[in-house]
């Protein structure tokens, strides 16, 4: 029999509610920015599916602004993406896409904030789903970690590129990484204990990115007021 795919992704729901979708192949035009999800990852590119079952291919050369060696290192199946239509072949019913950030960026500030809000909503949905599952494995541990949380770690490996890998009881079975710029100029050795702050929880890849920088460790949590404005620095 047939299969019905359901989605609770806020980005997809929003695009449907705002009718920012294409319902047939004839609606697809070069230059369109469309929200979809990664359906399949091949060695030559990524297939993206959009609402109403339409699909397109982002070739390896159009997947990222950075050089792509292994396509599986950049995306995972099910990941929400914003794609730009670059080419439409009506005869073969094929659509080529770009997933490069430089080509898929949104110039409108309100729309950019809207996409960011959708990301946080989707992240919250995923974490809520994972925390309500019965198993106590990796999913449970990931759902309990929060950005800004302080953790005590042990250095397990210092890599050639200057990044470091850590372990701790609270993050066992997870990959915990601090890239070189987030070590704060500290010289660390394997087996050494270190205090860190969580920068990013990658739920799809089960990776935790942390920072050992003192200016981040010393920050105190602020009580935010709705609609208040703040300056921010991207750390990851």
TrEMBL record:
Span of the signal peptide = none
SMART domains found in the cross-reference section: S1 (SM00316)
GO molecular function: any one? Answer: RNA binding
A GO-annotated cellular component: small-subunit processome
Give the source's domain of life in one word: Eukaryota
Biological process (GO), any one: rRNA processing
Which InterPro entries has this protein been placed in? NA-bd_OB-fold, Rrp5, S1_domain
PROSITE patterns in the cross-refs? S1
The residues covered by the S1 motif domain are: 31-100
| Residue ranges that the Swiss-Prot or TrEMBL entry lists as coiled coil | none
- The protein depicted here goes by the name S1 motif domain-containing protein
């Amino acid at each position: 029999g047939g299969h019905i795919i359901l989605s609770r992704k806020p980005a997809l729901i929003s695009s449907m509610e705002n009718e920012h979708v294409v319902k047939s192949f004839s609606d697809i035009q070069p230059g369109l920015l469309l929200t979809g999800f990664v359906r399949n990852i091949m060695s030559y590119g990524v297939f993206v599916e959009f609402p109403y079952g339409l699909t397109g291919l982002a070739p390896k050369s159009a997947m990222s602004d950075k050089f792509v060696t292994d396509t599986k290192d950049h995306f995972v199946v099910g990941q929400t993406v914003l794609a730009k239509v670059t080419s439409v072949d009506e005869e073969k019913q094929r659509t080529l896409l770009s997933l490069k950030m430089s080509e898929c960026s949104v110039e409108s500030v309100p729309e950019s904030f809207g996409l960011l809000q959708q990301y946080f909503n989707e992240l919250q949905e995923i974490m809520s789903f994972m925390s309500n599952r019965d198993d106590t494995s990796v999913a449970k541990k990931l759902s309990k970690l929060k950005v800004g949380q302080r953790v005590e770690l042990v250095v397990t490996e210092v890599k050639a590129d200057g990044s470091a890998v850590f372990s701790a009881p609270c993050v066992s079975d997870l990959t915990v990484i601090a890239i070189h710029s987030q070590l704060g100029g500290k010289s660390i050795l394997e087996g050494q204990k270190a205090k860190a702050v969580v920068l990013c929880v990658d739920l799809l890849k089960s990776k935790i990115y942390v920072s050992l920088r003192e200016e981040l460790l010393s920050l105190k949590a602020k009580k935010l007021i709705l609609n208040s404005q703040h300056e921010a620095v991207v750390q990851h």
